[in-house]
Amino acid sequence: MQKKNDFTNRFWSLTSSKNWFLMLLSIIAAFACWLLIIDYENPVVKTTFYDIKIDYVGADELDGHNLYAETEFDATVDVTIEGKRNTVIAQKAEDIIAEVDVKTLIYGANSLPIKFTAKNKGIEIVTTNKETLNIDVDHIVVKDFMIDVFANGEIKNPYYIFSASTTPPSVTIRAPEKKLAEIARVFVLYDIEDKTQSFHQLSEINIVNAKGEFIDGLDLYHSQADIDVKIGLVKTVNIIPKIAEFNDKNFRLDDFGLGINSVKIKGIVEDVKYLNNIRTKSILIPKEQGEQLINVSLELPKQIELAQATKIGARAIVDHIEEKYVDINADNVIFENDSDDIKVELASEENKIELRGLASNFAKLKSDDIFLIIDLADLTAGEYDLPFEFYSAKDFELIEGQTIKLKLE
């Protein structure tokens, strides 16, 4: 009990005003010494992180605003940080965030600030090698381009490429305006080697610039086109003349012929290969006596044409039909069923019959070209107007109702 009282008295003696001040001063001095020791063991240091990737905030929204960043979103930055050594040692490159808000980009040249953040407390961003980024922005536009068609390989005669077209005939491309301006040609290719009939082929759409270099990175509404290739065939066919009706009592078509009887045509192989004849358009022959030279046109089926320019003509001979009287003498008459007891002679010195025929035949008519047959059966002496049968080596027609006057003795 005595010891406890001694300790209590000693404690209160130490907490007297004089001793209390000394004790507080000792505690502060001890704390300061502790801080000095800690600061010596964990000082403030700096370090630099290199090639920290920049995060482009809102990059996925540019396309929706029809904007395209010509500057690649792959920039890096060097960052120097400062902090207590233990904190700095624990710091990693991914703990330093470098951000650029690209949602504010507009068409043209842009300069955007880089925002730096350290995830860990006690770290201060001291310096960086760049504080802003320059980004060039282009408009994204939509444009249609016609698709050209080219063949690979060779096709052998008499076949040829009649036509080649695509479905669709054009392609819609969405891309930055400057990139679209580089496009010199949009085309597809198809194989033609040894083809003898029309066909379809699905082909990739190719895009090149003026140097023939392929352009990538374009947004095509469709990447392929269906090529419809029509193979043509050259073939020789016969010409069949179609003569307009020639009915006239005064004229007759005496002769007709084409200048050529066959012609080369060309067209889609499926239309041509079974075609052997081509008709002319209706040939109208003038009703004029003499030789007629006529230009002739062909009645070509749809999608069939002449393989080469060919002038087709026809020659027609038109003759005038005349009616004329022709002299008849005894040498032109044959008597049937005549009697040796009866003498027969023409009753008149001038005996004529009327004929119808071509003027050219009349001009060439000779006396022995015609003859008459008269039947004398049961006839006795006297004068008679008798009918007769008419025959001619030329194309003549006897006018009906004629007779020959005979005298029988």
Describe this structure in words.
With 409 residues, the protein is mainly β. The model has no long low-confidence stretch (mean pLDDT 89). The strands form 7 sheets. Strands 10, 13, 16, 18, 19 and 21 form a 6-stranded mixed beta sheet that branches. Strands 6-4-1-3-7 form a 5-stranded mixed beta sheet. It folds into 5 domains: 2-41; 44-140, RNA Polymerase Alpha Subunit, Chain A, domain 2, CATH 2.170.120; 145-231, Beta Complex (RNA Polymerase Alpha Subunit, Chain A, domain 2); 234-319, RNA Polymerase Alpha Subunit, Chain A, domain 2, CATH 2.170.120; 329-408, Beta Complex (RNA Polymerase Alpha Subunit, Chain A, domain 2), CATH 2.170.120.30. The radius of gyration is 59 Å and the shape is rod-shaped. It has helices spanning 2-14, 17-41, 85-90, 177-181, 269-272, 359-364; strands spanning 44-57, 67-69, 76-84, 96-101, 108-113, 115-118, 124-128, 132-146, 148-152, 159-167, 170-176, 185-191, 199-204, 206-208, 219-220, 224-240, 251-258, 262-268, 277-279, 290-296, 304-306, 312-328, 333-336, 344-346, 351-358, 370-375, 382-386, 389-392, 396-398, 404-408.
Compact summary:
By secondary structure, this protein is mainly beta. It has helices at residues 2-14, 17-41, 85-90, 177-181, 269-272, 359-364; strands spanning 44-57, 67-69, 76-84, 96-101, 108-113, 115-118, 124-128, 132-146, 148-152, 159-167, 170-176, 185-191, 199-204, 206-208, 219-220, 224-240, 251-258, 262-268, 277-279, 290-296, 304-306, 312-328, 333-336, 344-346, 351-358, 370-375, 382-386, 389-392, 396-398, 404-408.
List the helices and strands and how they pair.
Blueprint: H1 2-14, H2 17-41, E1 44-57, E2 67-69, E3 76-84, H3 85-90, E4 96-101, E5 108-113, E6 115-118, E7 124-128, E8 132-146, E9 148-152, E10 159-167, E11 170-176, H4 177-181, E12 185-191, E13 199-204, E14 206-208, E15 219-220, E16 224-240, E17 251-258, E18 262-268, H5 269-272, E19 277-279, E20 290-296, E21 304-306, E22 312-328, E23 333-336, E24 344-346, E25 351-358, H6 359-364, E26 370-375, E27 382-386, E28 389-392, E29 396-398, E30 404-408
Parallel strand pairs: 1-4, 9-12, 16-19, 23-26
Antiparallel strand pairs: 1-3, 2-8, 3-7, 4-6, 5-8, 8-11, 10-16, 11-15, 12-14, 13-16, 16-18, 17-22, 18-21, 20-22, 22-25, 24-30, 25-29, 26-28, 27-30
